[in-house]
Write a structure and sequence with these properties.
Arc Repressor Mutant, subunit A; Transcription Regulator spoIIAA; alpha/beta; 2 domains; about 400 residues; disordered N terminus; nine-stranded mixed sheet; three-stranded antiparallel sheet; 4Fe-4S; single chain; globular; 17 helices
Amino acid sequence: MTAIISPAAILGSQALQLKSLPPLSLYIHLPWCMKKCPYCDFNSYEVRDRSDGMPEAEYVAALIRDLEASLPQIWGRKVISIFFGGGTPSLFSPRSIDAILGAVRALLPLEHLAEITLEANPGTFEAQKFADFRVAGINRLSIGIQSFNARHLTSLGRIHDDKDARRAVEIAQKNFDNVNLDLMYGLPSQTLEEARDDIETAVAYGLQHISAYHLTLEPNTLFHRYPPSLPDDELTADMQAMIEQTLAREGYANYETSAFARPGRESRHNMNYWLFGDYLGIGAGAHSKISFRDRIVRQMRYRQPKEYLAKSAPEISSDPPIMEQHEVGRNDRAFEFMMNALRLTDGFAPQMFIERTGLALTHIQRQLDVAERRQLITRDFQRIAPTLTGRRFLNDLLQIFLPRQSRV
């Protein structure tokens, strides 16, 4: 009698067997904005004609069909957070946001008091509109301020000025008790004192969360083609140190490379990304990472809004409008986990790596040894975390964990 050998036995450690699935978030991409900023490499599109350039009702219907078609991939799983990103989601009407959230609540189990974030541009702020966003169910607002300096806002191609920025924060605080400000430093011709003014202005509002990003010149952007004059590395390092010290003094924890929060106000949605949690992304160009018991899959929706709408048409297909999909291999699972989790100041519990990747910690033992020897991480049985040096030279740290075939 011939013994039947299971596929898992043949594959051995190659076979993925997750004992439990990670938390699940929902990302909703609203791709239109008033003006494409010269540094922006996001999947976003200028609205030149409001009536024709942003087919709001049609797009909302497509999002809901996309979500319905995606349900078999996430049956029975509770959603812990929702994030409306863009583009400029605040261009959409509160009625549209309410319709989307109504469909989400009807189709998916939502965790009680789930974090629901909307990104907003100060150039789109109207007091009543943001009160209505709150009524629709948004309970966290993320405002793309970038700077409170009028000259720098002009150089960044923003549609708002310094007065708009301040007014936006004031309107936000009247309607929301959980507000994030996005700021940037290392701006064209920016001085250390100007960067200090920006961060101290933000701190004075007493907000719950501040994100401070170093301006980088990304491929396929206007700034990449026509680079502005930027502060040198030494000056931007001084800016970073100043920002960290200022926010620490004011009671903000630097819990992730660019994120600072009051106690208990860390972004739950982003924490789920950084700890290799799952997320379903719907909308033009949205990315998903979805775990099953025996595999982890990454997907991307069609990028162009017109193509996304066409592929979402009910007469075309009942499937989600997925342009690309692939299974994440074991080496990539290890690297992707480390690439995200090592952004966190407190790092991660070793058991989290095992649960989220389906791999034993021995899979990265050699790399951990190298990183520890170079004093880029600290580790014990409870936690693996980047050192201050590891955080300052994060790319060097992550290079250690790159799959061999990916190294240059």
